[in-house]
């Protein structure tokens, strides 16, 4: 029976008179295909030299030729040195100690070079005052091979020779009328200071203004007022028993950074003791995430908190106007501080000189041994008032010349536009620059400067700790460093290298030893930052001034720097762009972090869409008429209500590749170089697509992923209570999963030869991400770009998972999960567990291939491309892999990465691996993977094999500590320990025997060679 | 009957011709050897003649024994002096005419003393050669010095002498070639004649047969063989299978040799002879390829390594020349080195104009294979020749080994690890020898077959 139903494809069809329907029924295409246009024209076809037949002939011939040509192997040329440098042996790496000092990051480093080109940055173990080899320092080697660098000196955009440049600049400087402003980064260099003094002698109208892009002006002012030296107190957090931080992200870039290694030492429970860390802050920072107790408070409340703390600890006051809950927290913190005595320390990041002065007073009152004011830090010298004054002077026209070195004020000044206009009025403008950035574009003269790996230098970290910078490669381009230019222009024919040597000639016993070690202790031959103790800050009134409630309307914005991008100098570095933020896990972006409550009230949304990506609303941020438009909004658990956060260093447009021009520039909101501002926020239209590598934010009470307990439980309870081995049922008897009888695999004897294990201490890990970049550099991990990361195709071999708690802490989460029963409660409560708390507890967990002894990936590979080595490494053989991806499917840890594309020499992925310069950073000992193969952490087999070979060649036994992976070597916190468990007396054996040890998803029975140490939190309230 | 005889005669003929060919070709080879011997003799003769002539000159110059002088000169003086051309020190030929004998004695025994004494001639020569001090030779007696001077005062051997020798040898050998050709020509002629005779005989016999009325039976028309083949399906199937197998075999062989460059012998920008250096002069491989001891790369020597020796060796000895490569050719190659490194042999100094040499790499492993020379050379104590073949005999280097993974693996299976005296191996040797119950462990037993030992 046939139906007389009429089916229709569109509503239009119901309209009987529609011409469109008629057309579509008659023709396949609604529009005429212009075949006649290109085939109908007889004339053009005849006049064409290539007929269709010819075309086919060409195709046939070229195909044949191409396949014939492919039969012959390529001729590979090999060009040895004509005169081989004595110390370079092809295939053997050389290491040089040097120092990064770019005005933001200061650290003594070890540079690994191969065949004369630097390929990796490592920690300098000799450096005692670790400046912190963070992810940016690790990535800095790639910034040298940046194709967007200024390659030679330029005058008005025209390439010139250095001779011409010197001549032109010389005559320009001689004829300057008015002041000459030398606007530089913090060099913290005795020789440079001496040189600038000499320059000022030659040109008496010179005014040297130091400009820190991210300012520590208030802390410097407070210290100067009290101690008569423009410096910052130095802290040794390894001595700390109680740390109270009021808005200080001291595990990040606070006051020059590098405090995390010392902090981590105190965080590992030893003899039942570990430090206690209380954090008051508005943004969820890395430091707050690591704290034992974190209180979200607004910046204005932070001032009151500090004032109250001062009152309770030093001032003898006993009341405050704070809300009861916070006041209670401050009282407790004060009590703990007093109890800890010399092990107590208070730090603050409040950008207010009064607050910073109070910090000094509190620590002095506590008798803190953590704070060291005798040997203060010299690595921040900037003076915000002088910088602002300089801009005013430029506007007024009293400045005849501006020389800028290491800074990019047109981008990074809050009044960047004003600065640009003022610069146009200045007769002689000169930028010493590595990049054709915003400032260099505006300058008449651009002096191309080398990267720090191509330069000489001396750096004063603290009053007595120094380090040397030495070149590790010949300058790649026709560049000359700032100091060499000054030497030339002051008529000194020495090189800067000789000049530094001369500076130090009387002060250090051996130049060569100092250069070899990279660091040395001495007294500076040149005084830096000395001044009178002005005492301009009155401590007595400071507390009451801070406590006074400030009237503000709108949201309080705290500008911060990300561990990956910092102040934005290395924005053109794809490794750093792709490194996910430790907290938000977003890469390639900055965004406005906002609390959930505020977001809801403003209608700002975050949602996960079907392709797995995170989308967010836009907002406009207004400050005194300055508007930063279309800032993506990301809802950040733990953000204090009434506050927002925004990272500096993004939104660069000049001298930077298009792919890297991401994020928004937050510097226009950095008014008076003050990180805290009162702003108004309004929703803007549009939806932003984030590239987040982690979508699920909470742990959902899965205690088998991260084990966490309190110090009290750890000290008093049996290990089975807080770190029990999972059990499985065998013949209805519960057996621990580690016992051989429940194992369905045949085990191998693993006691012969080396057997590598890696231990990750969750207590020492701060989540900084230095290991991620070190792994990138060591293993030639490709950069895939924002859209690919959004599709979860990131290639990081090592990820640092971040989990929030849904309740106040993870232990409550676990309890909640355990008590769920019945469908109703599981539906509602699992849903609740997915939502992070308003002030969640945070935990970081580095995850790489776990190198399972019973690896699920190995059994499913149809071509045996992944197999197990006797040394415990799960081996991935790229040339054998056919790309079925079964292994990735079967991996319970999801650590395998697939090469969806060819990431080298591919225009679609125009990052460092697509240009000859960027490829110089590639490690020649590790294969560059091609499309269609799986890859993953190899436990740095190239490094373990090298260590073994070195020992064989020298005929000796391998000592403990010689085996390292890139990540374990990069972790200066000691969170990662790598070693051979068959080596008696190795530290890794103790780690394996430790009560805190557990394996990830142990119940799966994979027997991983990577282990974790249970996270312990010190919840002891005094 | 005739048919049978006829066939018999063809096979015999074939056999005969093969026998002829073999015997003659052997003869030809023997001849070539003989001619080479003759050439060698010629060489010896010229040597002798030069010896004689030197004896003559010794007799006339009555200085001393040039033979003893030669050995002394080579051991003591040759590092800095050449008889007929300037090197680090001046050319010595004719020095007895320029200088007084007593002056020479004291100069050679201790030149610094002479210079210090303010001798004008001594100071002048010292200044001329950039104040390069000549070491003192107090061990030399006056007779020794006489001998040395006798050797250097021999007249320069005329290069023509060797050339004529070479020519005459060449002439002889070419003469030998002609004679072989003649014999082969004669042989060919004889064969052709035989064929003609046979044809004629056959024709005559047939003529006789027709004349005598014998009827040669007609061959019955048979089914063509290809037709019966096509009709036999079994045969077709078998041969098709066989054919496919053969094609498969060759296809497999073809595909398996792709990328294998065994025997690859590219032309290098400078004709560097390993035969001369590693073979004749027995220079240790690792003297030049020094990084093979410590690095994954054996390293192509940088040119400054060449100049360690070639600063003084600007030409090869006449006896180094071979039939294929003359002395002039080799000297030209050394000149290429000087050009590349920027050495001016006349002025004996570097011009600073360097032209790096673009060698063609012969042994190429794929990027995904990690190979470390030091592991094999220093730790394993393996001779270079094991993988690189008889390098000391190679005039032009070629790739001797296939460099395939199977080739590596085989060696790892068969080779025992050299463990004696290496502290690293003590523990693992103890454990593994217990495990496998053997005293000697192969690389494979040490884990040398694991994929990621070479692929990472």
From TrEMBL, chain A:
4Fe-4S ferredoxin-type domain: residues covered: 756-786, 840-871, 872-901
InterPro entries, per the entry: 4Fe4S_Fe-S-bd, TAT_var_transloc_signal_dom
Pfam family, one: Fer4_11
Coiled coil: none
PANTHER family: GLUTAMATE SYNTHASE [NADPH] SMALL CHAIN, GLUTAMATE SYNTHASE [NADPH] SMALL CHAIN-RELATED
Protein name per UniProt: Quinol:cytochrome C oxidoreductase
TrEMBL record, chain B:
Signal peptide as annotated in the record: 1-30
Zinc recorded as keyword: no
Compositionally biased spans, kind Low complexity: 51-62
Molecular function as annotated in GO: electron transfer activity; heme binding; metal ion binding
Region (Disordered): 35-64
InterPro entries: Cyt_c-like_dom, Cyt_c-like_dom_sf, Multihaem_cyt_sf
Protein name per Swiss-Prot or TrEMBL: Cytochrome C
PROSITE patterns given in the database record: CYTC
Domain Cytochrome c intervals: 64-156
Pfam families attached to this UniProt entry: Cytochrom_C (PF00034)
Residue ranges crossing the lipid bilayer per the database entry: 182-201, 234-255
Keywords of the record: Heme, Iron, Membrane, Metal-binding, Signal, Transmembrane, Transmembrane helix
